[in-house]
Design a protein that fits this description.
Elements (H helix, E strand, L loop, with lengths): L2 E11 L6 E8 L4 E8 H11 L9 H11 L2 E12 L2 E10 L5 E7 H11 L3 E4 H7 L1 E2 L2 H6 L22 H13 L3 H18 L1
Parallel strand pairs: 4-7
Antiparallel strand pairs: 1-2, 1-7, 2-3, 3-8, 4-5, 5-6
Helix pairs in contact: 1-3, 2-3, 6-7
């Protein structure tokens, strides 16, 4: 199965989930974006490394990196390999230097990304994940996207009553969420559309 490379392009505070953040990954050779809701601790761990900041004491992900370095273990790549009921599954592809044997370790996607930025290893996913959970940006939106910048959130529209909307209304709201760069809401609407499509198949 062909792997698709991803880059981190956004990390913004969630307006609806206390302590949560939206991590946005971008397809390297395409216009699709993969928004993933992560916890505050993992978001902080990713942001600190991306901004080249050094905490006074090692964070958990720094400890893992130091431990792996001490035993000559490196992470070659991270793969987001599955999506079940809105939850992304990832794994670390590790190798002990000099042995050439690969070992796969299951992990939360947020932890995988926090480690990927520390080991400076690539992040991949598969077409099936992007086709189900990816959000397409048009050229104008893509040009206006500032790498790793925190987006100013537009005023939130009422988000209740999603069950009462039909597919067309959901798709219209999804497009509006993409236009306003509200990736968290877009993720929620995308999951609802996918859930209904699965029921109809």
């Amino acid at each position: 199965m062909k792997k698709i490379g991803l880059d981190i392009v956004g990390l913004s505070y969630s307006q609806t989930q206390s302590g949560a953040y939206a991590l946005v990954l971008a397809e390297q050779e395409g216009k699709r974006r993969l928004p993933i809701i992560i916890g505050g601790f993992e978001a902080q761990a990713i942001a600190i490394e991306l901004e080249d900041m050094t905490p006074s004491r090692p964070l958990t992900h720094d400890l893992f990196k130091n431990f792996a370095d001490s035993f000559q273990i490196k992470i070659k790549e991270v793969i987001i390999y599955n999506l079940v009921e809105g939850i992304f599954y990832a794994k670390l592809i590790c190798e002990k230097e000099g042995e050439g044997k690969e070992i796969e370790i299951d992990t939360r996607t947020s932890d995988a990304v926090a480690l990927a930025v520390r080991f400076k290893c690539p992040i991949f996913t598969y077409e099936s994940i992007l086709s189900n959970a990816g959000i397409m940006l048009d050229e104008e939106e893509e040009e206006g996207e500032t790498k790793l910048s925190e987006k100013k959130s537009s005023p939130k529209k009422e988000k209740k009553g999603i069950d009462s909307l039909d597919i067309k209304e959901l798709k219209d709201k999804l497009q509006n969420a993409i236009d306003t760069e509200d990736y968290e809401e877009a993720s929620r609407l995308r999951d609802e559309i996918n859930k209904r499509n699965e029921k109809n198949n």
